Amino acid sequence: MSVFAGIDLGTSGIKIALVDAAGTCLAQAARPCVVDRPHPGWSQQDPQLWWDCVVAIFDDLATTHPDIMARLAAISLSGQMLGPVLLDADNRAVTPCILWNDQRALAECAQLVARVPDIGWRTNGQPDPGLTAPKLLWLAEHAAEALDRADILMLPKDYVRLRLTGERATEVSDAAGTMMMDCATGAWDDELIAAAGWDRARLPRLLKSYDPAGRLRARLCQRWKTPATVLVAAGCGDNYAAALGVGASKSGQTALSLGTSGVICAVDGAFHPAPDRAVLTTPHAAPDTFLSMGVVMSATQSLDWLSAITSTPAADLADQAADRAAKGIAGRPLARPSITGVRTPDNRPDAGAVFRDIRAVSDKSDLAYAVLEGVAFQFYDCYLAQTAAQVPIQDIRAVGGGTRSALWVDLIATLLDAEIALPENGPIAACLGAAKLAQAALEPTQIDAILSRRQATPAAAVPVPAWRQVLLERHAQFRTLPFG
Question: Of 191, 130, 63, 155, which Cα lies nearest the Cα of 343?
Answer without folding.
Answer: 130
